[in-house]
């Protein structure tokens, strides 16, 4: 089984972002199980309205022209959409901004990933999402 690189600090930061999104979107975000392909389900008035994948980055939004994510995440988002009719969005908190983009779309693919952990499973097919496709939710404040 592959190691999980998610720390308690990562989960805490993710929960802060989820709380801010819940307030912003007038919904409740419920954490999905660790083995799920997405982080949260969004519930409004007792009904699921979508799924959310949250990423927390330390760099500024415009440091890179694209956001790289595993193609497996895109494939999972498309499967969730096909099964439920609900969309999955990717929310990214950069050092300076919070933004989102739909995950159940087609994006350019390539071979890539992380090389810094010496984990061969970190190198895979990835997609590059143009930074300009992200819709801004606002500037990052101290509490998010």
The Rg value, from CA coordinates, equals 15 Å
Q: Helix tally?
A: 2
Q: Shape, please? A: globular
Largest sheet: 6 strands, mixed
Helical proportion, percent range: 10-25%
Structural class: alpha+beta
- Order of strands in the sheet with most strands: 1-2-3-5-6-9
Beta content? 35-45%
Poorly predicted parts? none
Sketch the topology as an H/E string, one letter per element.
Answer: HEEEEHEEEEE
Strand tally is 9
**How far from one another are the termini?**
32 Å
Query: Average pLDDT, to the nearest integer?
Result: 90
Oligomer: single chain
Task: Indicate the topology.
Elements: H1 8-25, E1 28-31, E2 40-44, E3 47-56, E4 66-70, H2 71-84, E5 88-93, E6 97-102, E7 109-113, E8 123-130, E9 135-139
Parallel strand pairs: 3-5
Antiparallel strand pairs: 1-2, 2-3, 4-8, 5-6, 6-9, 7-8
Structure notes:
The chain has 144 residues and is of the alpha+beta class. The chain is built from two helices and nine strands. The chain has helices spanning 8-25, 71-84, and strands at 28-31, 40-44, 47-56, 66-70, 88-93, 97-102, 109-113, 123-130, 135-139. The longest helix has 18 residues, at 8-25. The chain is globular and about 45 Å long. The termini are far apart. The mean pLDDT is 90.
Features of the shown structure:
2 helices, 144 residues, 9 strands, 6-stranded mixed sheet, alpha+beta, 3-stranded antiparallel sheet
Short characterization:
The chain has 144 residues and is α+β, with helices and mostly antiparallel strands. The protein is built from two helices and nine strands.
């Amino acid at each position: 089984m592959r190691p999980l690189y998610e720390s308690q600090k990562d989960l805490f930061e993710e929960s802060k972002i989820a709380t801010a999104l819940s307030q912003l979107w007038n919904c409740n975000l419920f954490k999905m199980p660790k083995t799920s392909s997405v982080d949260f389900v969004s519930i409004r008035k007792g009904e699921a309205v979508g799924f959310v994948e949250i990423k927390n980055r330390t760099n500024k939004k415009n440091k890179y022209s694209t956001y790289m994510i595993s193609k497996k995440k895109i494939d999972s988002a498309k499967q969730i959409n096909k099964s439920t009719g609900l969309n999955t969005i990717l929310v990214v908190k950069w050092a300076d901004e919070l933004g989102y983009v739909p995950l159940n779309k087609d994006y350019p693919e390539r071979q890539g990933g992380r090389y810094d952990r010496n984990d061969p499973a970190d190198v895979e097919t990835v997609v590059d999402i143009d930074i300009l496709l992200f819709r801004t939710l606002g500037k990052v404040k101290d509490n998010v």
